[in-house]
Specification:
This protein is 21% helix and 29% strand. By secondary structure, the chain is an alpha/beta fold.
Length: 458
Amino acid sequence: MQAEPKKSQAEQRAVAEPVSEPVSLVGEEYEVEVGPVAHGGHCIARTSEGQVLFVRHTLPGERVVARVTEGEEGARFLRADAVEILDPSKDRIEAPCPFAGPGRCGGCDWQHAKPGAQRRLKGEVVAEQLQRLAGLTPEEAGWDGTVMPAEGDKLPAGQVPSWRTRVQFAVDADGRAGLRRHRSHEIEPIDHCMIAAEGVSELGIERRDWPGMATVEAIAATGSQDRQVILTPRPGARLPIVELDRPVSVMRVGEKDGGVHRVHGRPFVRERADDRTYRVGSGGFWQVHPKAADTLVTAVMQGLLPRKGDMALDLYCGVGLFAGALADRVGDQGAVLGIESGKRAVEDARHNLAAFDRVRIEQGKVESVLPRTGIDEVDLIVLDPPRAGAGRKTVQHLSTLGARRIAYVACDPAALARDLGYFRDGGYRVRTLRVFDLFPMTHHVECVAILEPAAKGS
Protein backbone atom coordinates (compact mmCIF):
# COMPACT_ATOMS: atom_id res chain seq x y z
CA MET A 1 0.00 0.00 0.00
CA GLN A 2 1.34 3.42 -0.94
CA ALA A 3 1.93 5.74 2.00
CA GLU A 4 -0.03 9.00 2.07
CA PRO A 5 2.08 12.06 1.24
CA LYS A 6 3.19 14.04 4.25
CA LYS A 7 1.01 17.11 4.91
CA SER A 8 2.68 20.51 4.85
CA GLN A 9 2.74 22.65 7.98
CA ALA A 10 0.06 24.91 6.49
CA GLU A 11 -2.19 21.90 5.80
CA GLN A 12 -1.63 20.60 9.33
CA ARG A 13 -2.58 24.00 10.79
CA ALA A 14 -5.73 24.11 8.58
CA VAL A 15 -6.82 20.77 10.05
CA ALA A 16 -5.96 21.74 13.62
CA GLU A 17 -7.48 25.22 13.45
CA PRO A 18 -11.12 25.32 12.23
CA VAL A 19 -11.81 28.13 9.78
CA SER A 20 -13.78 30.89 11.50
CA GLU A 21 -16.79 32.37 9.73
CA PRO A 22 -16.58 36.09 8.83
CA VAL A 23 -18.19 38.24 11.50
CA SER A 24 -21.31 39.99 10.20
CA LEU A 25 -21.56 43.68 11.02
CA VAL A 26 -25.25 44.00 10.09
CA GLY A 27 -26.98 46.12 12.71
CA GLU A 28 -23.78 47.81 13.91
CA GLU A 29 -24.04 51.60 14.12
CA TYR A 30 -21.35 54.20 13.40
CA GLU A 31 -21.37 57.95 13.82
CA VAL A 32 -19.77 59.25 10.62
CA GLU A 33 -19.07 62.34 8.55
CA VAL A 34 -20.58 61.84 5.10
CA GLY A 35 -18.39 62.42 2.08
CA PRO A 36 -19.15 62.68 -1.65
CA VAL A 37 -22.00 61.10 -3.57
CA ALA A 38 -21.25 57.84 -5.39
CA HIS A 39 -22.81 56.01 -8.32
CA GLY A 40 -25.76 53.97 -7.03
CA GLY A 41 -27.83 56.36 -4.90
CA HIS A 42 -25.61 56.57 -1.83
CA CYS A 43 -22.79 58.62 -0.35
CA ILE A 44 -19.39 57.53 0.91
CA ALA A 45 -18.28 57.61 4.55
CA ARG A 46 -15.68 55.77 6.64
CA THR A 47 -15.78 54.18 10.04
CA SER A 48 -13.23 55.22 12.67
CA GLU A 49 -11.29 52.07 11.63
CA GLY A 50 -11.23 53.31 8.03
CA GLN A 51 -13.71 50.83 6.57
CA VAL A 52 -15.72 52.29 3.67
CA LEU A 53 -19.47 52.75 4.14
CA PHE A 54 -21.93 53.23 1.27
CA VAL A 55 -24.67 55.14 3.08
CA ARG A 56 -28.20 55.68 1.75
CA HIS A 57 -30.69 58.30 2.95
CA THR A 58 -27.98 60.88 3.55
CA LEU A 59 -26.33 63.80 1.73
CA PRO A 60 -22.73 65.00 1.39
CA GLY A 61 -21.48 67.00 4.37
CA GLU A 62 -23.94 65.58 6.88
CA ARG A 63 -23.07 63.93 10.18
CA VAL A 64 -25.24 60.86 10.72
CA VAL A 65 -25.62 57.62 12.59
CA ALA A 66 -25.23 54.90 9.96
CA ARG A 67 -26.59 51.40 10.60
CA VAL A 68 -24.98 48.59 8.60
CA THR A 69 -27.40 46.68 6.33
CA GLU A 70 -24.86 44.47 4.51
CA GLY A 71 -21.27 43.50 5.15
CA GLU A 72 -18.79 41.82 7.45
CA GLU A 73 -15.46 42.44 9.11
CA GLY A 74 -12.68 42.78 6.57
CA ALA A 75 -15.02 43.43 3.62
CA ARG A 76 -13.93 45.98 1.05
CA PHE A 77 -16.99 48.07 1.92
CA LEU A 78 -20.19 47.98 3.97
CA ARG A 79 -23.69 49.12 3.01
CA ALA A 80 -25.60 51.20 5.51
CA ASP A 81 -28.63 53.42 6.09
CA ALA A 82 -28.54 56.80 7.82
CA VAL A 83 -30.95 56.17 10.71
CA GLU A 84 -30.32 59.42 12.59
CA ILE A 85 -29.34 62.80 11.14
CA LEU A 86 -27.12 64.67 13.60
CA ASP A 87 -26.09 67.58 11.36
CA PRO A 88 -28.39 67.95 8.31
CA SER A 89 -27.44 69.41 4.94
CA LYS A 90 -29.15 72.59 3.74
CA ASP A 91 -30.34 70.48 0.80
CA ARG A 92 -32.29 68.07 3.03
CA ILE A 93 -36.08 68.04 3.12
CA GLU A 94 -38.56 65.73 4.74
CA ALA A 95 -39.30 62.91 2.29
CA PRO A 96 -42.73 63.61 0.71
CA CYS A 97 -43.42 59.89 0.33
CA PRO A 98 -44.60 58.15 3.51
CA PHE A 99 -43.06 54.87 2.31
CA ALA A 100 -39.53 56.25 1.78
CA GLY A 101 -36.73 55.90 4.31
CA PRO A 102 -34.38 53.36 5.89
CA GLY A 103 -35.70 49.83 5.52
CA ARG A 104 -38.70 50.98 3.49
CA CYS A 105 -39.44 51.11 -0.26
CA GLY A 106 -36.28 50.92 -2.37
CA GLY A 107 -37.68 52.65 -5.44
CA CYS A 108 -36.52 56.20 -4.73
CA ASP A 109 -33.01 57.19 -3.65
CA TRP A 110 -33.33 60.96 -3.20
CA GLN A 111 -36.77 61.68 -1.69
CA HIS A 112 -34.92 63.47 1.13
CA ALA A 113 -33.14 65.93 -1.20
CA LYS A 114 -34.39 69.13 -2.80
CA PRO A 115 -35.04 68.70 -6.56
CA GLY A 116 -32.16 70.98 -7.54
CA ALA A 117 -29.83 69.11 -5.21
CA GLN A 118 -30.86 65.79 -6.77
CA ARG A 119 -29.84 67.02 -10.21
CA ARG A 120 -26.59 68.44 -8.86
CA LEU A 121 -25.74 65.11 -7.20
CA LYS A 122 -26.46 63.25 -10.43
CA GLY A 123 -24.20 65.64 -12.30
CA GLU A 124 -21.39 64.98 -9.81
CA VAL A 125 -21.76 61.24 -10.37
CA VAL A 126 -21.63 61.60 -14.17
CA ALA A 127 -18.55 63.84 -13.91
CA GLU A 128 -16.80 61.41 -11.57
CA GLN A 129 -17.49 58.43 -13.85
CA LEU A 130 -16.25 60.32 -16.92
CA GLN A 131 -13.03 61.25 -15.16
CA ARG A 132 -12.37 57.87 -13.56
CA LEU A 133 -13.31 55.58 -16.46
CA ALA A 134 -12.70 57.71 -19.56
CA GLY A 135 -10.20 60.30 -18.35
CA LEU A 136 -12.52 63.09 -19.49
CA THR A 137 -13.35 66.37 -17.79
CA PRO A 138 -16.81 67.85 -18.42
CA GLU A 139 -15.19 70.46 -20.64
CA GLU A 140 -13.45 67.80 -22.73
CA ALA A 141 -16.83 66.05 -23.12
CA GLY A 142 -18.52 69.26 -24.31
CA TRP A 143 -20.77 69.30 -21.23
CA ASP A 144 -21.51 72.27 -19.00
CA GLY A 145 -22.32 70.07 -16.01
CA THR A 146 -26.07 70.69 -16.18
CA VAL A 147 -28.59 67.90 -15.61
CA MET A 148 -31.75 69.03 -17.34
CA PRO A 149 -35.20 68.23 -15.92
CA ALA A 150 -37.90 67.05 -18.29
CA GLU A 151 -40.61 69.50 -19.25
CA GLY A 152 -42.99 69.96 -16.33
CA ASP A 153 -40.72 68.26 -13.77
CA LYS A 154 -39.15 71.40 -12.31
CA LEU A 155 -41.23 71.56 -9.13
CA PRO A 156 -40.74 73.16 -5.71
CA ALA A 157 -39.19 71.16 -2.87
CA GLY A 158 -41.73 68.81 -1.35
CA GLN A 159 -43.59 68.24 -4.62
CA VAL A 160 -42.99 65.04 -6.58
CA PRO A 161 -43.44 64.67 -10.36
CA SER A 162 -45.72 61.79 -11.32
CA TRP A 163 -43.69 60.41 -14.18
CA ARG A 164 -43.39 56.62 -14.06
CA THR A 165 -45.65 55.19 -16.80
CA ARG A 166 -44.63 51.59 -16.05
CA VAL A 167 -44.66 50.27 -12.50
CA GLN A 168 -44.11 46.67 -11.45
CA PHE A 169 -45.81 46.03 -8.13
CA ALA A 170 -44.70 43.07 -6.04
CA VAL A 171 -47.40 41.12 -4.21
CA ASP A 172 -46.96 39.73 -0.69
CA ALA A 173 -48.30 36.44 0.67
CA ASP A 174 -51.56 38.16 1.70
CA GLY A 175 -52.18 39.42 -1.84
CA ARG A 176 -51.31 43.04 -1.07
CA ALA A 177 -49.53 45.07 -3.74
CA GLY A 178 -46.38 46.94 -2.81
CA LEU A 179 -42.83 47.70 -3.86
CA ARG A 180 -39.63 45.90 -2.96
CA ARG A 181 -37.31 47.20 -0.30
CA HIS A 182 -33.77 48.16 -1.29
CA ARG A 183 -31.66 45.14 -2.35
CA SER A 184 -34.29 42.81 -0.91
CA HIS A 185 -37.13 40.50 -1.87
CA GLU A 186 -39.13 41.85 1.06
CA ILE A 187 -42.19 43.86 0.10
CA GLU A 188 -43.30 47.24 1.42
CA PRO A 189 -47.11 47.36 1.09
CA ILE A 190 -48.24 50.77 -0.20
CA ASP A 191 -51.53 52.48 -0.95
CA HIS A 192 -50.09 54.92 -3.52
CA CYS A 193 -46.82 55.44 -5.41
CA MET A 194 -46.10 59.16 -5.68
CA ILE A 195 -43.89 58.87 -8.77
CA ALA A 196 -46.40 56.72 -10.68
CA ALA A 197 -47.93 58.50 -13.67
CA GLU A 198 -51.58 59.46 -13.43
CA GLY A 199 -52.52 56.75 -15.93
CA VAL A 200 -51.01 54.11 -13.62
CA SER A 201 -52.46 55.53 -10.39
CA GLU A 202 -55.97 55.71 -11.81
CA LEU A 203 -56.02 51.92 -12.29
CA GLY A 204 -56.11 51.42 -8.52
CA ILE A 205 -53.69 48.46 -8.41
CA GLU A 206 -52.83 49.15 -4.76
CA ARG A 207 -56.47 49.30 -3.70
CA ARG A 208 -57.38 45.70 -4.45
CA ASP A 209 -56.10 42.24 -3.50
CA TRP A 210 -54.09 40.02 -5.85
CA PRO A 211 -54.28 36.49 -4.42
CA GLY A 212 -51.85 34.04 -5.97
CA MET A 213 -49.91 36.71 -7.88
CA ALA A 214 -46.17 37.33 -7.59
CA THR A 215 -46.14 40.64 -9.49
CA VAL A 216 -48.57 43.00 -11.20
CA GLU A 217 -47.09 45.36 -13.78
CA ALA A 218 -49.14 48.40 -14.81
CA ILE A 219 -48.49 50.28 -18.06
CA ALA A 220 -50.05 53.60 -19.06
CA ALA A 221 -49.15 54.55 -22.63
CA THR A 222 -48.12 58.07 -23.59
CA GLY A 223 -50.18 59.65 -26.37
CA SER A 224 -53.01 57.13 -26.21
CA GLN A 225 -55.48 55.90 -23.61
CA ASP A 226 -54.07 52.36 -23.75
CA ARG A 227 -53.66 50.73 -20.35
CA GLN A 228 -52.22 47.28 -19.76
CA VAL A 229 -51.72 44.98 -16.78
CA ILE A 230 -49.23 42.10 -16.87
CA LEU A 231 -49.77 39.43 -14.22
CA THR A 232 -47.14 36.98 -13.01
CA PRO A 233 -48.86 34.18 -11.05
CA ARG A 234 -47.15 32.19 -8.35
CA PRO A 235 -46.57 28.53 -9.34
CA GLY A 236 -49.89 26.75 -9.70
CA ALA A 237 -52.03 29.83 -9.01
CA ARG A 238 -55.06 30.79 -11.09
CA LEU A 239 -55.52 34.26 -12.51
CA PRO A 240 -57.95 36.48 -10.64
CA ILE A 241 -60.75 38.33 -12.42
CA VAL A 242 -59.26 41.74 -13.17
CA GLU A 243 -61.71 44.52 -12.38
CA LEU A 244 -59.93 47.85 -12.16
CA ASP A 245 -61.01 51.48 -12.15
CA ARG A 246 -60.26 51.95 -15.87
CA PRO A 247 -60.47 49.67 -18.95
CA VAL A 248 -57.30 47.63 -19.41
CA SER A 249 -55.92 44.83 -21.53
CA VAL A 250 -54.58 41.92 -19.50
CA MET A 251 -51.51 39.79 -20.17
CA ARG A 252 -49.93 37.01 -18.17
CA VAL A 253 -46.39 35.69 -17.82
CA GLY A 254 -46.30 31.97 -18.65
CA GLU A 255 -45.12 29.70 -15.85
CA LYS A 256 -43.25 27.35 -18.18
CA ASP A 257 -41.90 29.55 -20.97
CA GLY A 258 -41.65 32.92 -19.20
CA GLY A 259 -43.28 34.55 -22.23
CA VAL A 260 -45.99 37.20 -22.05
CA HIS A 261 -49.35 35.94 -23.31
CA ARG A 262 -52.63 37.71 -24.06
CA VAL A 263 -55.58 37.11 -21.72
CA HIS A 264 -57.91 39.75 -23.13
CA GLY A 265 -57.67 43.07 -24.92
CA ARG A 266 -54.90 44.26 -27.19
CA PRO A 267 -51.53 42.51 -26.78
CA PHE A 268 -49.79 45.88 -27.20
CA VAL A 269 -50.01 49.54 -26.24
CA ARG A 270 -49.69 52.49 -28.60
CA GLU A 271 -47.01 55.02 -27.70
CA ARG A 272 -46.52 58.39 -29.35
CA ALA A 273 -43.24 60.18 -30.09
CA ASP A 274 -41.76 62.41 -32.79
CA ASP A 275 -45.23 62.75 -34.41
CA ARG A 276 -45.41 59.00 -34.97
CA THR A 277 -47.31 56.18 -33.26
CA TYR A 278 -45.37 53.11 -32.14
CA ARG A 279 -46.81 49.73 -31.25
CA VAL A 280 -45.13 48.21 -28.18
CA GLY A 281 -46.16 44.62 -27.50
CA SER A 282 -45.90 42.13 -24.66
CA GLY A 283 -44.57 44.58 -22.11
CA GLY A 284 -41.70 45.49 -24.47
CA PHE A 285 -39.25 48.30 -23.78
CA TRP A 286 -40.32 51.91 -24.04
CA GLN A 287 -38.95 54.90 -22.17
CA VAL A 288 -40.69 55.18 -18.79
CA HIS A 289 -40.93 58.96 -18.48
CA PRO A 290 -43.74 60.36 -20.66
CA LYS A 291 -41.42 63.08 -22.04
CA ALA A 292 -38.38 60.83 -22.45
CA ALA A 293 -38.89 59.53 -25.99
CA ASP A 294 -39.38 62.99 -27.49
CA THR A 295 -36.57 64.46 -25.37
CA LEU A 296 -34.08 61.83 -26.51
CA VAL A 297 -35.12 61.89 -30.17
CA THR A 298 -34.66 65.67 -30.20
CA ALA A 299 -31.23 65.45 -28.56
CA VAL A 300 -30.07 62.69 -30.92
CA MET A 301 -31.28 64.38 -34.09
CA GLN A 302 -29.87 67.77 -33.05
CA GLY A 303 -26.53 66.07 -32.45
CA LEU A 304 -26.42 63.97 -35.62
CA LEU A 305 -27.88 66.51 -38.07
CA PRO A 306 -29.00 63.84 -40.59
CA ARG A 307 -28.84 64.70 -44.29
CA LYS A 308 -30.91 63.47 -47.19
CA GLY A 309 -29.38 60.32 -48.59
CA ASP A 310 -27.47 59.32 -45.43
CA MET A 311 -26.92 55.67 -44.54
CA ALA A 312 -27.61 55.17 -40.81
CA LEU A 313 -27.50 52.41 -38.21
CA ASP A 314 -29.85 52.15 -35.23
CA LEU A 315 -28.36 49.59 -32.87
CA TYR A 316 -30.33 48.01 -30.01
CA CYS A 317 -33.24 49.62 -31.82
CA GLY A 318 -36.16 48.26 -29.78
CA VAL A 319 -39.46 49.00 -31.51
CA GLY A 320 -37.79 51.48 -33.88
CA LEU A 321 -37.94 54.87 -32.13
CA PHE A 322 -34.66 56.27 -33.49
CA ALA A 323 -34.89 54.32 -36.76
CA GLY A 324 -38.21 56.03 -37.47
CA ALA A 325 -36.80 59.46 -36.68
CA LEU A 326 -33.78 58.80 -38.91
CA ALA A 327 -35.91 57.46 -41.75
CA ASP A 328 -38.02 60.61 -41.74
CA ARG A 329 -34.90 62.74 -42.08
CA VAL A 330 -32.67 60.82 -44.52
CA GLY A 331 -35.48 60.59 -47.07
CA ASP A 332 -36.14 58.20 -49.93
CA GLN A 333 -32.51 58.20 -51.05
CA GLY A 334 -31.22 57.32 -47.60
CA ALA A 335 -31.34 54.00 -45.75
CA VAL A 336 -31.58 52.82 -42.15
CA LEU A 337 -30.63 49.45 -40.69
CA GLY A 338 -31.91 48.59 -37.23
CA ILE A 339 -30.62 45.68 -35.15
CA GLU A 340 -32.48 44.33 -32.12
CA SER A 341 -32.22 41.05 -30.21
CA GLY A 342 -35.83 40.79 -28.96
CA LYS A 343 -38.09 38.83 -31.31
CA ARG A 344 -41.31 40.66 -30.38
CA ALA A 345 -39.58 44.06 -30.50
CA VAL A 346 -38.37 43.26 -34.03
CA GLU A 347 -41.91 42.37 -35.07
CA ASP A 348 -43.14 45.66 -33.64
CA ALA A 349 -40.34 47.65 -35.28
CA ARG A 350 -41.11 46.16 -38.69
CA HIS A 351 -44.79 46.97 -38.20
CA ASN A 352 -44.05 50.50 -36.99
CA LEU A 353 -41.72 51.29 -39.89
CA ALA A 354 -43.52 49.42 -42.68
CA ALA A 355 -44.15 52.69 -44.54
CA PHE A 356 -40.40 53.17 -45.14
CA ASP A 357 -39.09 51.15 -48.08
CA ARG A 358 -35.48 51.91 -47.15
CA VAL A 359 -35.61 50.70 -43.53
CA ARG A 360 -34.54 47.17 -42.64
CA ILE A 361 -34.73 45.59 -39.19
CA GLU A 362 -32.56 42.57 -38.38
CA GLN A 363 -32.96 40.34 -35.32
CA GLY A 364 -30.02 39.22 -33.22
CA LYS A 365 -27.24 40.50 -31.03
CA VAL A 366 -25.46 43.53 -32.44
CA GLU A 367 -22.01 41.97 -32.08
CA SER A 368 -23.16 38.96 -34.13
CA VAL A 369 -25.45 40.51 -36.74
CA LEU A 370 -23.51 43.64 -37.70
CA PRO A 371 -20.40 41.82 -39.01
CA ARG A 372 -22.62 39.52 -41.10
CA THR A 373 -24.26 42.45 -42.92
CA GLY A 374 -21.07 43.23 -44.80
CA ILE A 375 -21.54 46.95 -44.12
CA ASP A 376 -18.16 48.65 -44.06
CA GLU A 377 -19.18 52.30 -44.28
CA VAL A 378 -22.03 54.39 -42.84
CA ASP A 379 -22.75 58.05 -42.31
CA LEU A 380 -24.50 58.01 -38.93
CA ILE A 381 -24.84 55.62 -35.99
CA VAL A 382 -27.26 55.61 -33.06
CA LEU A 383 -26.73 53.11 -30.28
CA ASP A 384 -28.91 52.76 -27.19
CA PRO A 385 -27.48 49.66 -25.49
CA PRO A 386 -28.73 47.98 -22.33
CA ARG A 387 -27.38 49.06 -18.96
CA ALA A 388 -24.15 47.06 -19.36
CA GLY A 389 -23.17 49.15 -22.41
CA ALA A 390 -21.98 48.13 -25.87
CA GLY A 391 -18.56 46.80 -24.86
CA ARG A 392 -15.10 46.92 -26.35
CA LYS A 393 -15.65 44.54 -29.30
CA THR A 394 -18.73 46.33 -30.62
CA VAL A 395 -17.19 49.77 -30.17
CA GLN A 396 -14.05 48.69 -32.00
CA HIS A 397 -16.17 47.53 -34.94
CA LEU A 398 -18.24 50.74 -35.01
CA SER A 399 -15.07 52.81 -34.98
CA THR A 400 -14.03 51.27 -38.33
CA LEU A 401 -17.21 52.29 -40.22
CA GLY A 402 -16.21 55.91 -40.81
CA ALA A 403 -19.39 57.44 -39.40
CA ARG A 404 -19.57 61.22 -39.60
CA ARG A 405 -21.26 61.29 -36.20
CA ILE A 406 -22.30 58.76 -33.59
CA ALA A 407 -25.05 59.24 -30.98
CA TYR A 408 -24.68 57.13 -27.85
CA VAL A 409 -27.77 57.04 -25.60
CA ALA A 410 -27.00 55.68 -22.13
CA CYS A 411 -28.89 55.05 -18.92
CA ASP A 412 -25.74 54.14 -16.97
CA PRO A 413 -22.92 56.71 -16.76
CA ALA A 414 -20.33 54.08 -15.82
CA ALA A 415 -21.01 51.96 -18.91
CA LEU A 416 -21.08 55.11 -21.04
CA ALA A 417 -17.73 56.29 -19.71
CA ARG A 418 -16.09 52.91 -20.33
CA ASP A 419 -17.37 52.83 -23.90
CA LEU A 420 -16.31 56.43 -24.54
CA GLY A 421 -12.80 55.33 -23.61
CA TYR A 422 -13.02 52.55 -26.21
CA PHE A 423 -14.27 55.03 -28.83
CA ARG A 424 -11.32 57.29 -28.06
CA ASP A 425 -8.99 54.35 -28.72
CA GLY A 426 -10.85 53.89 -32.03
CA GLY A 427 -10.26 57.48 -33.12
CA TYR A 428 -13.45 59.22 -31.93
CA ARG A 429 -13.85 62.15 -29.59
CA VAL A 430 -16.89 63.39 -27.69
CA ARG A 431 -18.28 66.48 -29.33
CA THR A 432 -21.13 67.14 -26.89
CA LEU A 433 -22.73 65.46 -23.91
CA ARG A 434 -26.22 66.18 -22.59
CA VAL A 435 -27.59 64.74 -19.36
CA PHE A 436 -31.31 64.51 -18.59
CA ASP A 437 -33.09 63.84 -15.31
CA LEU A 438 -35.71 61.47 -16.70
CA PHE A 439 -35.94 59.49 -13.44
CA PRO A 440 -36.70 62.06 -10.69
CA MET A 441 -36.27 60.96 -7.06
CA THR A 442 -33.98 58.09 -8.15
CA HIS A 443 -30.24 58.04 -8.82
CA HIS A 444 -30.72 57.25 -12.53
CA VAL A 445 -30.00 59.63 -15.40
CA GLU A 446 -30.11 59.45 -19.19
CA CYS A 447 -27.16 60.70 -21.25
CA VAL A 448 -26.77 61.50 -24.93
CA ALA A 449 -23.17 61.71 -26.16
CA ILE A 450 -22.42 62.86 -29.70
CA LEU A 451 -19.10 61.64 -31.10
CA GLU A 452 -17.12 62.56 -34.20
CA PRO A 453 -13.76 61.53 -35.66
CA ALA A 454 -10.97 62.97 -33.52
CA ALA A 455 -9.13 64.34 -36.53
CA LYS A 456 -12.13 66.53 -37.32
CA GLY A 457 -12.09 68.04 -33.83
CA SER A 458 -8.33 68.59 -33.66
